[in-house]
Amino acid sequence: MSDDDWTSVERLPTAERLAAEALIVDVDGYEGPLDLLLTLSRTQKVDLRRISILQLADQYLGFINKAHSLRIELAADYLVMAAWLAFLKSRLLLPPEPGEDGPTAEELAAHLAFQLERLEAMRDVAARLMARDQLGRDFFARGLPEDVSLNRKVTYSATLLDLMRAYARIRTKDEFRPFVMDRDHVFTMEQALDRMRGLIGYAGDWAELTSFLPEGWDGNPMRRRSSTAAHFAAVLELAKRGQVELRQGETFAPIQLRRKEP
Question: The whole model's pTM is what?
Answer without folding.
Answer: 0.37
